[in-house]
């Protein structure tokens, strides 16, 4: 316990990196998810196919493999392009950016499924009614689809967020100084890896428990008009 | 004059110079990838098997709210489901050596100092936690009528569990279990972070050895995609077979009435 207290600074710094990584990836994944959901529901067959390929591909490849491919392969690709075109010199891909891009891309696919299900759960008649009273497509989305979509999507959204938080631990493998990496290096130099890994588990548990509670509160707010059976 | 080249040499030349991926190098190392796939499949399915066996009694105890056991099991599943598998694996593999009692115990040299066993233990406990929870859900949603009918037929609680509750709960849990199998497969890449040569481990080895950026990861990725594809096919077959009663009934096609 004393050891953990002594190293609190480095653990707190790591926790901040982990949380900001998770939040930025979440924002990106919501963007990808909305695009994916609209592609999967679009009347155009080409877009539907792209959307379906995206979600199937992500579901079949482990996160860490994709992360390494984007981190190492993306860097080589960027440098090859730079060399071929002469537009830029040697670039180093930042682990944080690689992590955000990978996690955003992966969880975008899960979000796309979540949003698609939520949009489908809205009765078609409401959208028709909104259009018939002269609302624009944009108004239909902001006033009718979105508020209800949030309600329907929230349970699955919560689940995705919790999985995302746990997936952030993987960026330590490509060398980002997140919570796991910091705790690991502190633990190794002190021959106390159990103590430090246990502390990491507790910190993750606190993050997941707090966000679970917070999202439950949001759920209650958005389903005020709903009657629970 | 240019010497004659065999087709294979020609292929090698293209592969090394112009092709975006050095496919001949991948081809030469294919046997290593197959070995890696074997390690991955072994870890995944052993963890699923052992985890499933552990999960059944735990799920029953949770579903029937057994006084002392229920909160303990809830704590276990909550802790394992709320934390990353990577950290759990590190805790077992790197962490346990911190204690002298563990290092001196009889379990140390054959099991707890071996990454393979540590990974298997971590994966098993992790998948058991998830399986317990959705199996509990499946047991709790057993239709009341089925249990009443079993009681009316004079079945003892144990027989009821064995012949009525569990078979129907397994069926209801089947779609959720396909996700769990795929997630366990995805999680198994963590084995490569503790020096095991699973699929990703072989990919990382290849890239490190030949100083490459894509080949190893792309090959590993294709292997994973193939495995996931086969798992999905197997589940589609299983759902067809075991959830047949839930599919909309196929009506006999009536011959189109002749037009007047």
From TrEMBL, chain A:
It holds the Pfam family BPD_transp_1. InterPro entries: AA_ABC_transptr_permease_3TM (IPR010065), ABC_transp_permease_HisMQ (IPR051613), MetI-like (IPR000515), MetI-like_sf (IPR035906). PANTHER family: ARGININE_ORNITHINE TRANSPORT PROTEIN AOTQ, CATIONIC AMINO ACID TRANSPORTER, MEMBRANE COMPONENT. SUPFAM superfamilies: MetI-like. This is ABC transmembrane type-1 domain-containing protein. It is found in: Cell inner membrane; Cell membrane. Keywords: Cell inner membrane, Cell membrane, Membrane, Transmembrane, Transmembrane helix, Transport. Its main location: membrane. It comes from the Bacteria. The chain crosses the membrane at residues 16-39, 60-78, 93-112, 161-181, 193-218. Belongs to the binding-protein-dependent transport system permease family. HisMQ subfamily. Residues 15-211 form the ABC transmembrane type-1 domain. GO terms for cellular component: ATP-binding cassette (ABC) transporter complex. It is a multi-pass membrane protein. One of its GO terms (molecular function) is transmembrane transporter activity.
